[in-house]
């Protein structure tokens, strides 16, 4: 079922120093995916299911960029079934903050979320959810009617790509950032901190 996606996912992630471990937990992962879909009442696109079956804890060691409009954004992490920021933890964190047609699948350094569509016309699309323009914040300051519904609020959501595989194709290493060109700055310590 996932063979058509597996090769491209493995090839793409191997460019970013991410090692995929072959393990025997596929059946357990399939059960967890099914439980997530049933519990939250949505279906995950097959390409993203394949990613979840192949990967554990995708926190990138190198700076990974993706093109978004005319600018490049940094991708810090993609959520998996296991690890520090598991998909389930993120689903719970963003429940009622992101429209139910979307779920968070990754994070940019400033807290913006990479989302995938799991329902209706959003299904399979990859979108950027901006946390600084969140509906609840606007409600609190009176900028939006308190009766506004999260499922009709898309003011802070922008399309990145038509599919998960298209999104993976957008990813690239930041070649401009390397040890020689990066300025770490100076660190000054008070004399008292240097004493034994």
Automatic annotation (TrEMBL):
Show where the Knr4/Smi1-like domain sits: 27-170
The name this protein carries in UniProt is: Knr4/Smi1-like domain-containing protein
